[in-house]
Design a protein that fits this description.
heterodimer; A: 64 residues; B: 137 residues; mainly alpha; 7 helices
């Protein structure tokens, strides 16, 4: 359940709802902004992941 | 001509001031959403409380880092100020000895959730100030 994708979607959802309630008052504008933010974050995350896919992960970072 | 110009730059009608701005800011800083509740924005205040609380809870469940000032890391001051925005929760977590776990699989995500909870509440503090001063609905 706690996959990278799930956590990314959860984060995008929380932040999108937050800014929607903070910046918009009318329901129609709220829905529009929510979709823009949510899909932008999730879609942007997937796009960056896809661009990084060909690169090898490399060794794990040292623990300080 | 002058009338047209004055119409174009006509400011929006002023909103009424609500409550005491200082009380609203202090309430918002202590408990997320309480400033909005004080300003009679009940539903929004409760929604903000739930959002910040969920972010905080997920961050703690993932054992993320709750920033505190590091001796040789000036940027940690900014991160600490951001995290301290979560208000009384930050103090309580510190008092309870919460430190996060860098070996936890969700450490990085948890850190992002905790920092976001603090930053969201800083924005709520500013929002409560604006509403109370009549600059925002």
């Amino acid at each position: 359940m706690l996959s990278h994708f799930f956590l990314m979607v959860l984060y995008a959802f929380l932040v999108s709802v937050f800014f929607t309630l903070l910046w918009r008052r009318r329901r129609r504008e709220q829905v529009k902004l929510f979709l823009q933010l949510f899909l932008g974050m999730v879609g942007g995350g997937l796009l960056v992941a896809w661009l990084m896919y060909p690169f090898p992960p490399g060794p794990p970072a040292p623990i300080p | 001509m002058a009338d047209t110009a004055s119409n174009e730059t006509k400011p929006a009608p002023a909103l009424p001031r609500v409550g005491n701005p200082v009380v609203a800011v202090v309430a918002a800083l202590l408990i997320p959403g309480l400033g909005h509740v004080y300003l009679r924005r009940w539903r929004r205040g409760l929604a903000f409380l739930v959002l910040v609380a969920v972010s905080l809870w997920v961050g703690c469940a993932l054992k993320g880092n709750l920033y505190q000032r590091e001796p040789n890391d000036p940027l940690s001051i900014l991160a600490t100020l951001g995290a301290m925005g979560m208000g009384i929760s930050y103090v309580l977590l510190r008092m309870m000895g919460y430190a996060g776990d860098i070996l936890s699989a969700g450490y990085e995500y948890g850190t992002a959730f905790l920092l976001t909870a603090g930053l969201m509440n800083w924005l709520l503090v500013l929002d409560a100030w604006d509403i109370s001063r009549g600059k925002k609905e």
